[in-house]
Amino acid sequence: MSKCIAIVEHKFHEELLLPQINLLLRDNYQVHLITNAQIAASESLDSIRDKISIKTFENTSKFVTKLKMFIEIPRYLKKHLISKLVINTLDSRFCHLLLNRVDGVETFGFIHNADKFLSHQKFHAILKKINRPMVLGVYIAEYLRANHIHVTPVYLTEFGVTESDAVEKTCDPIQIVIPGQLDRRRRAYDDLIDVCSSDMNMRFILLGNANKGDGPELIKKIRDRKLDRQFEWFDQYVPHEQFIKIIRSADYIMPLVHSNCLIYSRYQECKATAAFMWAIASRKMMIMEEGFKKIDEFSVLSKYYNVKTLAEFLVSIAHPEGRVNLDGQHETIRNNYIATINGK
Hints:
Elements: E1 3-9, H1 17-26, E2 29-36, H2 37-40, E3 53-57, H3 63-79, E4 84-87, H4 93-99, E5 106-110, H5 116-119, H6 121-129, E6 132-135, H7 138-145, E7 152-153, E8 174-179, H8 189-195, E9 202-209, H9 215-224, E10 231-234, H10 240-249, E11 252-253, H11 264-267, H12 274-282, E12 285-289, H13 296-299, E13 302-305, H14 310-316, H15 328-334, H16 336-341
Parallel strand pairs: 1-2, 1-4, 2-3, 4-5, 5-6, 6-7, 8-9, 8-11, 9-10, 11-12, 12-13
Helix pairs in contact: 4-6
């Protein structure tokens, strides 16, 4: 009998779909993706599009569409004899209501903002309906365990970044990638721009759409300070294949999360930075603010700096010697996803 599984992602975490689907296909699952039209059309799914079934809903942010999903998703699961369901983003009222309508399937899901599950009753109710909740890091699992919530930590790394595909790069300048939307609340771009000079032998790649959010203001600041040679940016969405190529060719990945970022403390306890996921996938060294030293699983992959001496730190770094060798714990957790889905 074939193994059938569905993944529901209605809005937030498209970046986790490809690695999950790659792992599930490798383990001989028939995969059904239930999502919105925008994600369904995303280039990030092109490599596996013809290997899975996709059910699409138009504009899942609309109330009437959500009502339609509450009716049609349970029917879809029964029609296709789907026995396992992954909720890709558990942190929403939508998931709470959907789970109330789903019966007869084994349920899994990802917690992205662990603190919500301590303080809100509706999120407690979600956990009661999830057979095996997962989080994207050991430190988040430990945070929840300290509050009597047991979850499985996993790393999702199957993005097509493999050791054989790695791009060796030893030429100048040093390439430092800062992935994510250009948002001052999440990343301390100004701290970095303020310490850069036009003679620095490094290039910071802002891997997000610079026409959105705080992008236009930040690019103006870079140009006003004549730092065009030290920064590279993109005036549109970065296609998936190009995104992967840039990550592969980087010397370092820099989350750029400092104490003046709105959710700095949450990134140290209950929320994962996508930069860590990319660092593990590509075995690249991260450049991290020293407040993250307390997270043991970062240490193998990180060089740490103090914000006050960031300029001196940047001048001191050199091209890395090679790809990072992950320790046994990292390798074990990379295997946790399929083991969790298979009930092991």
